[in-house]
Structures are given as structure tokens and as C-alpha cells.
Design a protein that fits this description.
The protein is of the alpha/beta class. The protein has a domain of 138 residues: Jelly Rolls, CATH 2.60.120. Helices cover 15% and strands 35% of the residues. The protein has nine helices and 37 strands. The strands form eight sheets. The protein has an eight-stranded mixed sheet with strand order 1-35-34-37-32-31-29-3. Helix 6 links the parallel strand 21 and strand 22.
């Protein structure tokens, strides 16, 4: 995970008089822990933004696999003509493969031969990633005006015209039917400069619907998630996934909300819907796929249910008008947790997953503090009563302060500059412990584009030290947004944790800060005293009581080397071999990118600690974790 440097650094006891003016950190191991660390402190927040699902984690290679309305319906579908062949391509508004998908791609070939075929091609999400010796699984729905029509499917390189893989689907006839195919590549170079072609060897008219092509997926799950992105998420050691998203849950208008019942079952029955970020979601990433995402990472869902508010200031008044939405939420919870004897548990089993999923937290809405109607207090209370009646063990999260009752958990969101993160790193130090527990469901230091720079990572790390020190009250936190497609037009919101294009991906400096903190969390918060540190120095100390490991986190957000005197009050005087993981750079503007993915990455040193006190110098603009047995 980290770069390894195997030099041993001997850290000796230094007389206190010689370092009196230097920063000091005293770790009070003899004292009782100040708090238990929340085991669910670090998790993931997901959102369909920046092409996070389609074109990102959900690795469908075909863009606009269902034909939409409007003049842009064919933006990613263009004609293929070779030699003297001829073809016309249009969107047919009246011939679709299903009631949910009423439109199709009409391909009228008027001249074609085996040597000079004609048809249609799709350019993917800024290309299609093709790798050597890989198997791609494809399908399409089709009908034709003639019997036994063959369709050749091929992956072709944009620059060279070389075919990476091809297959022929035979027997397309007069009724809508699903056809499958497999494309297997050979000894080729990995490239994103590819497109998919579907061509005919003779004149005919054919209608295509729901054209799909999938690469290999994480854990080889059928139609699962993109491998490199899932590996990066796994490295973060998350404990939960907040799903299906924030604004994506609400939609701009009530009919554009995430209607989970329209996202389950066969793709052919999923009508798709517009996302708030001005592109259409295929809904291939439906409710079950979110849950399987959790299953693949061995984490739990934090399920957000629609609560009667959409972002164009449309809301449903508490009372009888809200009842259908509450029933929909109860059905959704049953789909997640019910056994096969329940109505919606049985539906989940029919969808291919007989076993229920674990669920402990349900969030009622998203960012309802934006709702100017003042209706959220009543809406939350109504959801709370009815969900608790059926599921008393669930913890229900409010998305705005509630006056009429104390919610189980309150979701708070913070998007900050680095200066704000530094200034507010102690935000939760004096929080009322009698108030609701806190879920920091969206937060980020927003500096850098498309992904955070080192200055943002320093701000994030400062903020995380505060959350760790107060993880008795801050029980969960998730950075947002998680993903960004770095291609032109792929970003709607800067600053995002993980960047990618069709072929590859990278973690930002803020990503690596998350990895470092989550991989060295511990089970208890250890009391500590920081002195002579000055501004822009932040610390937190936790320990794993069972494994007897101490995690000391020191953030030096200054431009100077800081030499620390660290005292371990209550530790043995024996020598300890420990690890120091450091994320740093020469400038706060240092960052990572597709072309330089590891410009800022953690470096690990082996260090030797002699006795119960030692000193060490921490680099400018650095995030540091000392992993020390005690």
C-alpha cells in the first residue's frame, strides 16, 4: 500500500532542557481512555455526480445504452460505412424493446456486403478501455425486417482501425429478443482509444435496444463494479456506504427522485431517470447493486430513503399525503432486510439475492435544511414513528436539526477551504454529549481541481484529528464526492477524492490521508497534551487495546520542519521498533493526476524508539502516523 523505506532511524532520549521550546506531545497511557473510538467512524458516501456510476464505478462500456429523447439521443451513436455501403441511423420513438424502454435505435442498411458492411458504432464514455487477454461480456435486444440476420460485433481501435476482438450473432429475426455475445482480446496493448461497432453484411433494417458491453469486474461478480476503483475503496478500509446518494436521492423534482422499485430486476424493466447533474442515469446501478457493492467490500449500507423533498423546493406535507412515501420506505427496508417469506424479501430473492443484508442506520432524506417550507420537522417525526413501529432497532438519521424531538443521529455537512478546516479542526471538542450523535455525512476541504491538492489533504487531516478525538459523539464520517471522471465534460463538482478516465485511476493526496487514518484507527482515544506547537499543528492519539498498538497522528501544515519531543507517559522503557508513515510534498499545491498518479503518496520508514520519550522531526506540509507497539 505504501512505498517502503527500510532504513532504521534510532530515536534516543533527549534531555528536556534542550528541547523546551520545541513542540511536545505527551501521551498519557496511564490515564483511562477519553472515549471509545467509533468502529464505524470512516466510510463512503456515494453520489451519481461526475459520472461516478455510469462511466465510472459501474463499468458499462456503452454510453447511452438505452435510447433517450431529444436531439442528443444519438450523440454517442454514429454510422459505420465502408466502401460503397450505405446506412441511415435514427431514434425510433415508437418501437422499443419494453414498456419501460419505449425507444430504440433504428439502423437502415441500404447497401452492404461481407467485405463492406454497414451499421452503427458507440464511442463509450470518452473511449472504451480494452486490455490484453480479457473477456468482455455483451448483449443487445434486437428485431429485424428479415429473418436470420447476422450481426457482427467488434471492438475497434480509434487510431489504427485494428480490431481487438469480434463475434457474430446469428439469427436475428422479426420479434424483440435478447442476444448475447463474448469478445475475447489477444496480445494487444491496453488502450482506451476504442469503440464498439455493430454491422450488417447485407441490406436490412434492424432495431437495437439496450446494447451493453462489460469488462471483467471486481471479484468477477456478473455486471459488478470496476476493478481498480473497488481496489482503491477497499484500501480505505471503509465500514459503511451511504447510499444511493445525496441530491441523487431527491432529484430536482419529485418525479425525478431515486425510485428504488424502478431500479431492481432485469435491465429491460428499468426505465432510467434524469440525475440532478444534467445527464441521465441508466439505473444499472440500482438498489441491489448498491447492496452488492457493500457485500463485496464487507461493509454495511447506510440507507437513505426519500422523505418528501426535492431540490426545486417541491415537498410533500406531513400527514396523509406523505403516507405513500413512508410506505415506499418501509418496503425498501424490507427489500434490504426481509427474509424470503416477506413480500419484498421474496422480490430480492427473485432478483438473485436470497439472503438479507445487514442494516442498522436509515437516513430520512438528504440536506433537508435547504427546504424553505419548514416541513422537515413534521416529515421526520412521521417517518420516525412509523419506521420505529416496525423496525424498533434501526437508528434513524435526521438531515437537519429537529425541534420537536431528539433524533437518533444528526447528519452534518461541511465543505471548507483549507483555512476553514484548520481553524475549525476542534469543532467537536466541546460538543454537547447529551445531544444527538453526529454523522458527518458529507465533508471535504475543497482546494484543487479535479482532485484535492496537498493543502486540501492537510486540511482534511486536521479535520480528521478532531473527529477522531471526538469519536464518542462523531460516530460516522464520509468524504464527498468520492469520484470524478477527469475527461473534459466529466466533472460537475470539484474537488473529488479519486480521479479516473476510461483506462486508469489515481488517488488524490486527500485519498491517501483517508487511507492513512482509517488504517490506523484503534479502539480507544488516548488522552494527550500538545504544547508549544503554535498554529497549524494538529494531533490525535488512539490505540488498539487488544493488539497493544499506539497510533500517533501529527499533522504539520506549516512551511517549516517541526522537531517534536514525544513522551509516552506509562510506556515501558524497552526499545520498540515502530513504523512512521508520512505523506508530504515540497509545496502545498503538490498534487496527483492521471499522468502523475503517485506524485504525492505515503512513504513508510521503520523507526526504533528507545525508552518512553523520543524526538523526531516532521517535514513541512506533512501528515504523519506513528504505529508503535507499547
Amino acid at each position: 500500500m505504501f512505498k517502503q523505506i527500510f532504513a532504521l532511524l534510532s530515536l534516543a532520549i533527549v534531555p528536556a532542557a534542550l528541547i523546551a521550546e520545541e513542540p511536545s506531545l505527551t501521551v498519557h497511557l496511564k490515564n483511562r481512555p477519553t472515549a471509545k473510538v467509533s468502529p464505524t467512524l470512516y466510510g463512503l458516501m456515494t453520489e451519481e455526480i461526475n459520472f461516478s456510476y455510469d462511466g465510472g464505478l459501474y463499468p458499462e462500456l456503452v454510453r447511452d445504452r438505452t435510447i433517450g429523447r431529444g436531439w442528443q439521443a444519438l450523440a454517442h451513436w454514429t454510422i459505420v460505412q465502408r466502401g460503397n455501403s450505405a446506412v441511415e441511423v435514427s431514434a425510433d420513438e415508437h418501437a422499443g424493446p419494453s414498456a419501460a424502454l419505449p425507444r430504440s435505435l433504428k439502423v437502415k442498411v441500404t447497401a452492404a456486403t461481407e467485405a463492406e458492411p454497414a451499421g452503427v458504432q458507440n464511442d463509450g464514455f470518452w473511449g472504451m478501455a480494452v486490455r490484453p487477454h480479457a473477456i468482455y461480456t455483451g448483449s443487445f435486444y434486437a428485431k429485424a425486417d428479415s429473418a436470420d440476420l447476422p450481426v457482427t460485433v467488434a471492438l475497434m481501435n480509434d487510431q489504427t482501425g485494428a480490431i481487438a476482438a469480434s463475434a457474430t450473432v446469428s439469427g436475428v429475426g422479426g420479434d424483440w429478443k435478447r442476444y448475447t455475445f463474448t469478445l475475447k482480446t489477444g496480445d494487444i496493448a491496453a488502450s482506451a482509444d476504442n469503440h464498439l461497432q455493430l454491422t450488417l453484411p447485407r441490406p436490412a433494417t434492424i432495431w437495437f435496444g439496450l446494447v451493453s458491453l462489460f469488462p471483467p469486474t471486481y471479484h468477477d461478480r456478473p455486471f459488478g463494479n470496476r476493478v481498480d476503483l473497488m481496489e482503491k475503496l477497499a484500501a480505505m478500509r471503509p465500514q459503511f456506504l451511504r447510499l444511493p446518494g445525496g441530491n441523487y436521492l431527491e432529484g430536482d423534482h419529485i418525479p425525478e427522485r431515486f425510485e428504488w422499485k424502478k431500479t431492481i430486476g432485469p435491465w429491460i424493466d428499468r426505465p432510467t431517470h434524469p440525475s440532478p447533474w444534467h445527464y441521465r442515469s441508466s439505473d444499472g446501478m440500482g438498489l441491489l447493486e448498491f447492496l452488492e457493492w457493500c457485500e463485496d467490500l464487507k461493509i454495511e449500507p447506510v440507507l437513505a430513503v426519500y422523505a418528501g423533498y426535492s431540490m426545486a423546493q417541491e415537498h410533500v406535507e406531513p400527514g396523509s399525503a406523505l403516507e405513500p412515501y413512508i410506505q415506499d420506505a418501509l418496503d425498501e427496508i424490507e427489500y434490504v432486510t426481509g427474509d424470503a417469506n416477506t413480500k419484498w424479501g421474496a422480490e430480492r430473492a427473485r432478483n438473485g439475492h436470497p439472503a438479507p443484508f445487514p442494516l442498522h442506520y436509515v437516513e430520512i432524506g438528504n440536506e433537508d435544511f435547504f427546504d424553505r417550507s419548514g416541513s422537515y420537522d413534521g416529515r421526520y417525526a412521521q417517518y420516525y414513528r412509523e419506521i420505529k413501529q416496525k423496525y424498533p432497532g434501526l437508528q434513524l438519521i435526521a438531515t437537519a436539526p429537529i425541534k420537536s424531538m431528539k433524533p437518533d443521529v444528526l447528519d452534518e455537512h461541511y465543505y471548507m477551504s483549507a483555512e476553514q478546516s484548520f481553524a475549525d479542526a476542534g469543532h467537536y471538542d466541546k460538543t454537547d454529549r447529551n445531544g444527538p450523535r453526529i454523522f458527518v455525512g458529507e465533508w471535504a476541504t475543497r482546494e484543487g481541481e479535479p482532485t484535492p491538492n496537498l493543502q486540501a489533504a492537510l486540511g482534511d487531516a486536521a479535520w480528521m484529528t478532531g473527529m477522531e478525538r471526538n469519536s464518542d459523539i462523531v460516530i460516522m464520517a464520509s468524504y464527498a464526492p468520492l469520484f470524478v471522471n477527469v475527461n473534459p465534460g466529466g466533472m460537475q463538482w470539484e474537488t473529488d477524492l479519486i480521479g479516473y478516465n476510461a483506462l486508469t485511476s489515481y488517488g488524490s493526496p486527500s485519498y491517501w490521508a483517508q487511507v492513512m487514518f482509517a488504517n490506523h484507527l484503534g479502539t480507544e482515544v488516548v488522552a494527550s497534551t500538545l504544547a508549544n506547537a503554535g498554529p497549524r499543528i494538529y494531533t490525535s492519539v488512539t490505540r488498539d487495546a487488544q493488539q497493544r498498538r499506539l497510533y500517533i497522528k501529527i499533522v504539520n501544515a506549516t512551511s517549516e520542519v517541526k522537531r517534536f519531543n514525544i513522551a509516552l507517559d506509562g510506556a515501558s522503557t524497552a526499545q520498540h521498533e515502530a513504523r512512521l508513515i508520512t505523506l508530504s510534498g515540497k509545496s502545498p499545491n503538490a498534487t496527483n493526476s492521471i499522468t502523475h498518479p503517485d506524485a504525492v503518496a505515503p512513504v513508510e520508514h521503520a523507526i526504533r524508539v528507545s525508552g518512553a520519550a523520543f524526538e523526531h522531526s516532521f517535514e513541512p506540509y506533512s501528515i504523519n502516523v506513528i504505529d508503535l507497539p507499547y
